[in-house]
Design goal:
The protein has 413 residues and is of the alpha/beta class. It folds into 3 domains: 169 residues, Molybdenum Cofactor Biosythetic Enzyme, Chain A; 77 residues, Alpha-Beta Plaits, CATH 3.30.70.2860; 154 residues, Maf protein. Helices cover 42% and strands 25% of the residues. It has 14 helices and 17 strands. It has a 6-stranded mixed beta sheet with strand order 2-1-3-8-7-6, with helices on both faces. A 5-stranded mixed beta sheet has the order 14-13-15-16-17, sandwiched between helices. Strand 16 and strand 17 form a beta hairpin. The radius of gyration is 26 Å and the shape is globular.
Amino acid sequence: MQGEIILTGTELVTGQVADVNARYAARRLHESGLPVRCVTMLGDGDPLFGEVLVRALRRSRYVIITGGLGPTDDDMTVAQAAEVLNLKLTQDEGMLARIRRRLEQRGFDWHPRYGKLSLIPQGATILDTGRAACGFSLKSQDTWLFFLPGIPQEMRLLFESGVLPVLTAMAGQPGHLVQRSLRLFGKMEIEIQQAVHTVEQEVEGVEVGFYPNFPEIHLTLTARGPEHPPLKERVERFIVALHQEVGDILLGPDGATLEEVVGRQLREQGRTLAVAESCSGGLICHRVTNISGSSDYFMGGVVTYSNQAKMDLLQVATETLEEKGAVSAETSADMARGVKALFHADFGLAVTGIAGPTGGTPEKPVGLVFMGLAGLNGVESRRHQFPGDRDMVKTLTAETALDWLRRELLSGL
């Protein structure tokens, strides 16, 4: 049972906003064995909408349409769909009453334009979660249409409650499905592809979805069949074989983020962490504290961007900065040692480098980053040369630093 997705929004086609709705829906549908045939992106009120919708009705069993359900003049999706389907727009009194009530609760005055939110094509069914998100479904001949808001949080809420359960029930696919998500970091894309190809010769019956997601590579493993236990065992064998091929670049078999993996390791080992950052500007601390419960193991961090801050807060020696420079192995080691002592942590992780695009020299080019890790057995420094623009260098710095700590914790040192 194939379907497609239509996105509307001028902010999408002009590149001002990145699409997240189609990506989310397509991934969830794929996980449920419901392939998406294509994704179409249109601007608000684009006259091509009618043509795209007619084509979708001819070739797909379901169509998910997001965006253009708001109260403003450029929100035209509902009116355009009604015209294509030759249906009258009717006002849903229940939705209208709910909109009035929510506006009052939030202290907003009523304006006639809000009435537009309650206009739906004749025969449509409201997708009601009991919360702010509103959408509707409609069947046209043999195709189900689902109209969802463009705001990602609202779209996901309605998708999970009113779209995915309906589609999975419609599909009625026999048998079982087992899926696992993997994250890998530390090898080139082509190397991972070769490793996957080798494992596929050994373990058959596992579909592999390959998704480069800078700076990591994400894989989705899927096995389908009449019985669940053999499928699970097959996927587990694939993961074990892949781990043997790629080594510890496999962050984990559960799809957890790198910061989740590191946090879990620190908690299980009863260890604590402190971080000192320069070129990454606090990105490592941000990622670590994105994990709920990180206060169990994260003691604190500092962004010592200037030399004076490095000296005052981390006790980096003046001679080190003058003789070796802020971007050096010696400075990164002193920073790691200093932040470990400052917060009385078991591990001190530090980074200093040149993110660019300015500041580089022939001796110390843009992308040069030194990392220091002070642990249970002293201090170590490492030198890296990262490619890309400023954002890429900062991202690679944070990822590589956290991955270094992960590997240290994995080794039990």
